Amino acid sequence: MRRKGLASMAVQTVAPATGSTGTTVDLGPASGLSCRECGEVFALGPIFACELCFGPLEVAYELPAGDPEELRRKIEAGPANIWRYAPLLPVPADVAEKPNLNPGWTPLVKADNLAREIGVEPGKLFVKDDSGNPTHSFKDRVVAQALEAARAFGFTTLSCSSTGNLAGAVGAAAARAGFRSCVFIPHDLEQGKVVMAGVYGGDLVAIEGNYDDVNRFCSELIGDPLGEGWGFVNVNLRPYYGEGSKTLAYEICEQLGWVIPDQLVIPIASGSQLTKIDKGLQELIKLGLVEDKPYKIFGAQAEGCSPVSAAFKAGHDVVRPQKPNTIAKSLAIGNPADGPYVLDIARRTGGAVEDVNDEQVVDAIKVLARTEGIFAETAGGVTVGVTRKLVENGVIDPSLTTVVLNTGDGLKTLDAVADSSQATATIRPSLDAFRDAGLAH
Amino acid sequence: MRRKGLASMAVQTVAPATGSTGTTVDLGPASGLSCRECGEVFALGPIFACELCFGPLEVAYELPAGDPEELRRKIEAGPANIWRYAPLLPVPADVAEKPNLNPGWTPLVKADNLAREIGVEPGKLFVKDDSGNPTHSFKDRVVAQALEAARAFGFTTLSCSSTGNLAGAVGAAAARAGFRSCVFIPHDLEQGKVVMAGVYGGDLVAIEGNYDDVNRFCSELIGDPLGEGWGFVNVNLRPYYGEGSKTLAYEICEQLGWVIPDQLVIPIASGSQLTKIDKGLQELIKLGLVEDKPYKIFGAQAEGCSPVSAAFKAGHDVVRPQKPNTIAKSLAIGNPADGPYVLDIARRTGGAVEDVNDEQVVDAIKVLARTEGIFAETAGGVTVGVTRKLVENGVIDPSLTTVVLNTGDGLKTLDAVADSSQATATIRPSLDAFRDAGLAH
């Protein structure tokens, strides 16, 4: 974790706690940024690393006090998107009236067919399906937070490094909100993700290298005058951005009747999503919105990019970077920034981190489609595949409530299943031809 | 409209008003099937054409009587999907508890940026964006109704002829509900639609011919013992299937605060969707859920398959079939079954039917993406393009509330915009290379 470089950039881009209008920044209940390592608190601004210890910053809150029942009712009466949780997010109270994509409140699907297929007790397995978000991945949740921060800090260009899904989410959100956008992707992405990143009319820059190269480049750009005035959603706006993943925890619990599930299976790319889901669950407990109870968090990686899984299995606290080689490109981050925190959470909750190979990913995509009618992208194949593996190994308890995340859409990673999902037969339009094809049921 | 053939098949497949269990068919408020031409009423069953006059059958209801305010409250307290309208649909009251895809309650997006771009008064233009449905098209709405009918009539195989979107919707719904599926598509569909139709594990049959050939083949199959026991969602279950489109009307009005918009722009393939949206609006008026007021319905076609637009412009009551040649394949039905009814409705409401060419379709897709962050499939390009054209021609009033439908997802028709939505630049990961590319803002 090359923190020195990050911190010196943070100092360069530090801003006062007021937006470009000179008024105090209004990000709702967000009261400041606190260092995850040393606890030092900073004013809200486009900074992401602690000046003292170089630790990552995260949003600190003054969360609503008072009757949990009343807060629950207020949330339940809110819009069918993430803004029902606005009182718990770093956004102004009137966020739902501003132009944005209004993601979230995606289905929590009771997956009885899948449960039977992989040996879980029917009624106990759920898929949180984020493919219905506006740009068909969970990234709409995090970008929506970063956009509000960008507005508050007076940025006019939205940017990011991306493995594809984020590029589309930033492009779309910027278009709706009237921002310019310039997004950076590895040059070898899936065609669907490239077109989706380009169609919204912003600048789309392909970098000759993998995601870690793209990320390094963006870190350089943000410290250079060339990047001045740019809001990089996952760099200088990262503390706000990350908070969007908490909404997955909120929705899952509310959809289960304000109950924390016993087991959650979450994909790991940078690891941010998993750590923020844990943060969201802890907040719900603190607020009294759910009862405190034990839960286990399981992280899922693809074998071809499994630095966190490798560290977990080896009993290490540090994550050794890997050079990714997997079809699960949205998870192909070889040097995951939040890897050590993921290890902490998996161990603290009694969970685990596991990985599956590309063949198992493809198989899991098809099992999920065949059993539940959900067409997941490769990242969903990873979580479903890992769930199956952990059930088989006796690590996941099949009699307890388990929620598996599908964070993206199969239409963006068609190549993974294209060869094996073609027409069963091609025939002339005649009954004889149909009879000869042997498909009558 | 070769009605004789259809009617004789209807007689062959007629069933008693009881399901396979021998109990009375429970499809909620649906009381029978009535002929759209002569008004004759039949018992609920898997039939689709009148025995007397060969006219198409549609569902007749005993709709809930009583206080509209109470019904509105009941609907508003319902689930965030089409089943909030279960009391107005041909489905059992407990439909939400059965395994299905729970589509609907998709966003009605206030499209101020698009409004400014095409000359509509900001605040007056809305996009009903159905790309967030489970299989990313409005077809999930209609299939969900057909599935309940199939359950009620004891079918175990779900089938359809499809231009692509329907195939995916049937495959997914069948998988979730535990039905077998066998879907029929033209052999030259977009890759995304083929893979999505195949991934759910049912049989996928490519027919050498266009959609009209596929449709003809399915009509033959349903009259043959080979097709016995099959529920063809858009043939022998068509009366139920079509009702799903009413939910678009319900949602639009509820999302506008229980108000009918002044103008609606709706794509025309078979024309069924447009006629059922009109039916839905009329029901809302009858039930007192909205105030009675004038509204204009505009139909949108692609120039390369514009039989209804041609008939409208020529002042004809009959629709002359065309051989489709357009990139808007989901609308490429050269012989649209409901064409004459569409003409009636456009004329009765003071609307129109218009078409745009493929270049305008592509341009409209990109305008919608660039202004609102919505990536539509070609059918959405058709409706947005037609809206722009009708505003320019002074046919649509830019000062009145207008709702434009986007019925599908850009990821399924990537080819339409792939050439023009690639990376702005491909560079090495260095600041110098970025500077040289001239993209600094």
From TrEMBL, chains A, B:
Annotated SUPFAM superfamilies: Tryptophan synthase beta subunit-like PLP-dependent enzymes
Annotated InterPro entries: Ser/Thr_Dehydratase, Thr_synthase-like, TrpB-like_PALP, TrpB-like_PALP_sf
Domain of life per record: Bacteria
Coiled coil: none
Keyword Ribonucleoprotein part of the UniProt annotation: no
EC number: 4.2.3.1
Domain Tryptophan synthase beta chain-like PALP: from-to ranges: 103-408
Keywords: Lyase, Pyridoxal phosphate
Alphabetical list of Pfam families matching this protein: PALP
Cofactor: pyridoxal 5'-phosphate
The keyword Lyase belongs to this UniProt entry's keyword annotation: yes
PANTHER family: L-THREONINE DEHYDRATASE CATABOLIC TDCB, THREONINE DEHYDRATASE, MITOCHONDRIAL-RELATED
Membership in a protein family: Belongs to the threonine synthase family.
Identification of the protein by name: Threonine synthase
Organism whose genome encodes this protein: Streptomyces gulbargensis
